[in-house]
Amino acid sequence: MQKRGKQTTVQQQAAEPRLQLSVIIPLFNEEANVEALYGELADVLSRLDRSWEVLFIDDGSRDATVERLQGASAGDPHVRIIRFRRNFGQTAAISAGIDHARGQVLCLMDGDLQNDPADLPRLLDKLEEGYDVVSGWRRKRRDPFLTRRLPSAVANRLISWISGVRLHDYGCTLKVYRRDALADVRLYGEMHRFIPIYAAWYGGRIAEIEVNHRPRRAGRSKYGLARTGKVILDLMVIMFLSHYSRKPIYVFGGFGLAMFAAALAMFAYWFYEKFLRTPSVNRPALPALVVGMTVVGFLAIFIGLLAEMITRVYYESQHKPTYAVKEVIEYEKEDK
Hints:
Helix content: 40-55%
Radius of gyration: 24 Å
CATH superfamily of the largest domain: Spore Coat Polysaccharide Biosynthesis Protein SpsA, Chain A
Number of strands: 9
Order of helices and strands: EHEHEHEHEHEHEHEHHHE
Number of domains: 2
């Protein structure tokens, strides 16, 4: 029996029997892949010695993704389909999956069939060794070099260096988490890829294993070079919130002091050139240009960080999610 429109609150989830595993899959215009994806997943998961569910998060698809998925999974009580009213992005879809999941262990993976469901048992086995997060590493990645692999390699090195959490492949969605590792995580922007950093900062143990990465069979990739810039900006936000969210005066005050010091030094230089040097020199254009560009650049970055803080206050003080669910489709188990 199919049920629609059921909204599950956090209290209701806590009262429900906990499953052992929840697999969360964001989808956006993947009509050509969802039937095969469901078939592969169901085959792998049915052979696991644990209770499980699969949450498909439809991120406002404009094709027949949901219809084909319903046709493939009809009557399967392990499956829930959460539909958004419009496209909110991958991070919002993952956040919705985490909010609605009932499992003690959460697995995230892409819906384009490039992640191999057959890798899931190995990830779970590694988690059982005492880790809180196990991340997939697409060592033999099946993507274009210039537009995907090269920017990803640069971003991974930069993220590892800045955060201190060494992973080869932050961009690989295929990861498994213990639920308590995600207890206080709030996701915005493109921040789903930084969940291992959050977990490590709170004392979680992180592991990484190689996983199979398959060529895309159908459809188009939703990622591009523009995403690299967003990832770097999100990383700046994470570092800011981690170190200065409770003491922003250290950043903004420090910036102000630095500007005062720079202004004093420039005034001293100008005074020397204008009044003490013989013959006197007057060249205001170059210093004015350099100072103007520097100030504008710093102001732009810090105004952006301030806006990020305001956004979090807005959402979290009012308990507003970063997505809007249209309906939840699931099936009740039939009485025997």
